[in-house]
Amino acid sequence: MDFDFSDDQLLLKESVGKMFAARYSDFEKRKAYQKLPNGYDRAVWSEYAEAGILSLPFSEDHGGFGGGPVETMIVMEQIGRSLAVEPYLATVVLCGAILKHCAAEPAAAELIPKIAAGEAVVALAQIERGSRYDLNDVSLAARKDGEDYILEGEKSVVLGGAGADFLIVSARTGGNRRDANGISLFVVDAKTPGISRRGYPTQDGQHAAEISFAQVKLPASTIIGGEGHGLALLSRGVDEAIAGICAEAVGAMDELVKMTVEYLKTRKQFGVAIGSFQALQHRSVDMLVMLEQARSMAIYAALSAGDDNAVTRGQAVSAAKVQIGRSAKFIGQQATQLHGGIGMTMEYKGGHYFKRLTMIEQMFGEADYHLRKLAHAGASLAA
């Protein structure tokens, strides 16, 4: 299998790298962005639109460039290196994946060009209290009211939800709370009467929201993926998002390893650089090995994210998530220990990489959760 980038992909990597470096090479800029409403600069978001990265995964018919999971991997790795705070994951990678797989439907067809042009930020309202990582654990109700639906319930930890212009909401139109069938996805204007939002910053510098839906009335045309059949579409979007955050984690880990090695070269103890101590050299090599293992699995996830077979695609992204979680924990802990006290300060960038890696490890299921999924799949095959 050929893992080399094409000329166009190499050009994308170079241009995106320069763009993020210009906006995030100074760590103080990131702190300034975080102080703005919703935790990012909308002007920077518009620059992303002008550069074409917001339209990258969408087809040319919808104003995009027709990029695939590998192009998304390239962008997400640069986001990880920069610790960028814009809601690219929530809007373009996660919601974008859901929308592009039902792009022929009116609600999706209308929204995709707005995302590509930087005119709309979209968030997925899927998590509920107690649902943990189960996508089919949905209790928010969507009951029929003539030709319309009435949404009633709450969603938690909605990434980018406080500043989103539109929401993709998972709701139950039939069945019981944990049934696979009966889940529908609605595209909802965030200004619709009955929606209330409480935004807050997360530990890694991103933003999320608690969202309540009180008698929110929606027309049937806002459903995407078919009434009661939204779980397959939701699962596919999450699988592509997992591949995306695996790439983001690799970018963050790569920078953290480089920072740690550079620190070992410059920090002196007993008159010599601590990097000359063999024990610390061994630990930095172990970090590099874990990084390369994670990089290989991130590439595997990206190459598998476009698989139409839900079973094989799910197994691939679960395997990648297991390795990413283990590598992120190891590299983050080692980097913090090797930096000493400075690694724990808010002023030093290294600790912020570790925070983001810790959050990535928990998103869409931590390593143990995905390991159990793989073990269950293996047992089913054996049976």
Description of the molecule:
The protein has 383 residues and is an alpha+beta fold. The protein folds into three domains: 7-120, Butyryl-Coa Dehydrogenase, subunit A, domain 1 (Orthogonal Bundle), CATH 1.10.540.10; 124-229, Butyryl-CoA Dehydrogenase, subunit A, domain 2 (Beta Barrel), CATH 2.40.110; 231-382, Butyryl-CoA Dehydrogenase, subunit A, domain 3. Helix content is 52%, strand content 16%. The protein contains eleven helices and ten strands. The strands form three sheets. It has a four-stranded mixed beta sheet. Helix 7 (230-266) runs parallel beside helix 9 and helix 9 (310-339) runs antiparallel to helix 10 (349-362). The mean pLDDT is 93.
Strand tally: 10
Count of structural domains = 3
Helix-and-strand structural type:
alpha+beta
CATH first level of the largest domain: which class?
Mainly Alpha
Helix tally?
11
Provide the spatial order of strands within the biggest beta sheet.
1-4-5-8
- How would a textbook summarize the main sheet? 4 strands, mixed
In which range does the helix fraction lie? 40-55%
- Counting copies of identical and different chains, the oligomeric state is single chain
DSSP strand content? 15-25%
CATH fold type of the largest domain: Butyryl-CoA Dehydrogenase, subunit A, domain 3
CATH superfamily of the largest domain: Butyryl-CoA Dehydrogenase, subunit A, domain 3
Going by CATH, the architecture of the largest domain would be: Up-down Bundle
What is the CA-based Rg, rounded?
21 Å
Shape: globular
> Overall pLDDT, averaged?
93
Q: What sequence of helices (H) and strands (E) makes up the elements?
A: HHHHHHEEEEEEEEHEEHHHH
Measure the end-to-end span: 31 Å
Q: Detail the poorly predicted runs.
A: none
